[in-house]
Amino acid sequence: MSEPRRVPGARDLAALVLARVQKEKAFASAALEAELGRAVQLDARDRALATELVYGSLRVEPWLLERIAQFAPRGLHSIDARVRAHLVVAAYQLFFTRVPAFAAVSEAVEAIRASRGPRMAAFANAVLRKVAEQAQKPGPEAREEAIVASTPAWLREALERALSAEGARAFLRCGTEPPPIALRVEQAPQRDEWLARLHAAAPQATFEPGRISPRAILARGAGKPQSLPGWSDGAWAVQEEGSQLAALAVGAREGERVLDACAGRGNKTAILARDVGASGSVDACDSSPSKLERLGEELVRLGLHAHATFAVDWSVGSGDVSGVYDRVLVDAPCTGVGTLRRRPEIGLRREPTDLAAKTATQLAIASRAAEHVRPGGALVYVVCSVLREEAEQVIEALARARPELEPAPFDSPAARALCADATSFRLLPHVHGTDGYFVANLRRRE
Fold first, then answer.
1. Spatial separation of the C-alpha atoms in residues 71 and 128, rounded to whole Å
2. Within a 10 A sphere around the Cβ of 2, how many other Cβ atoms?
3. Most C-beta atoms within 10 A of its C-beta, which of 180, 196, 223, 319?
């Protein structure tokens, strides 16, 4: 009589996601969402555990692998991604959770036995028992040290140049807890009404107003946002709060002509289209036609539209974009370092050469897009990075390349509430509760 088939649990799912991140270079958030969608057998508690194990393990994976490797005489290079992932998930539980050691070890060993056989299970059992002897359930300070130690040296140094040594540690420390999901209410005056409706629809969850965007609601424990009331009616969208403020910083006004030069899937485009109203127009550009197609679909869902969309690679030219605009938003492609708390795998994938390549691209895009700013108009430069190389240094180089541009205070109440008369600002997770961004405003001389 054959043994009953093993039912995958939270730890199995977490290991599967980690293996996909390693083998397929998948983003953890997308892989986790996909696997949770298939795991109908998991209840809310197990889903929360799987989420913690994925993000927690990724944030300290290099540190964990060092400890595992001490007890693997032949190293870990020849071990397949799934087994390695189970070892990492187990080690994370041993060091950083209240899960009993015997449970963490036995679950990993049984999962490996089911998929890779008894020999590999015996190896995993021997290694994890030794790791368990070493683990002493350290407190928050030790987890912070593990996160810092897991951050590549070049990235730590770049963060320290931008934020100071203490600021860099505070930035990295925010990786110990998963961030909330941010919703963007389409009609800002209705935010309190939607807070009440969402509370009533999901009393087990928490909903709070955002700290810096007047349109943001922050949700925790609410499950899939699209199942909440208001989504199907286009009353709100899912958009990270810092991203909301970056678009609001453009200061778009009723009747203006605005260009979203790097629109992606259109979250910022939607804010711009809402702000210019029926008498204004927003043109949206991206190098990916598929993203522009999704942008159009999202705007329709919200009852909005773009005046025109253009597939443009700004690094080589302006494509079919012509004329000038009152305001131009350049949300430039970047290293994504500001999103580390949501995408911990970024820290493990980026290289110092990526930083130099991104800054060159950012300058080229911003310089070409600046040709389409009318005299007296504004260019707002945004990156979801906090590094000086992608921030102040790009703005300084842009001012040299385009002397007709000059830094100017923001023409946006939301931005001025944050930075007063400054011409640029950073958003930081440990200060504002958002992802990390740099936002700068430049005016074209008349």
1. 8
2. 4
3. 180
Q: 236 is written with which tokens?
A: 């709100």
State the SS3 of 247-306.
HHCCCCCCCCEEEECCCCCCHHHHHHHHHHCCCCEEEEEECCHHHHHHHHHHHHHCCCCC
> For 385-394, how does the pLDDT look when each residue is reduced to its tens digit (9 = 90+)?
999 999 999 9
Q: Which residue is it, tokens 């050469």?
A: 353
237 within 8 A of 302, measured Cβ to Cβ = yes
Q: By the 8 A CB rule, do 86 and 123 touch?
A: no
- Side-chain-facing half-sphere of 207: CA atoms under 13 Å: 23
Note the pLDDT tens digit of each residue in 326-356: 999 999 999 999 999 888 888 888 888 889 9
Q: Is the separation of the CB atoms in 378 and 442 below 8 Å?
A: yes
The CA distance from 277 to 253, in Å, is 8
Q: Residues 225, 237: contact at Cβ < 8 Å?
A: no
Catalytic residues: 384
**Which amino acid belongs to residue 102?**
F
pTM comes to 0.91
- Between 61-69 and 140-150, two packed helices, what is the crossing angle to 10 degrees? 90
Angle at 60 between CA 20 and CA 86, to 5 degrees: 45
Q: Are 397 and 349 in contact (CB under 8 A)?
A: no
Whole-number pLDDT of residue 45: 85
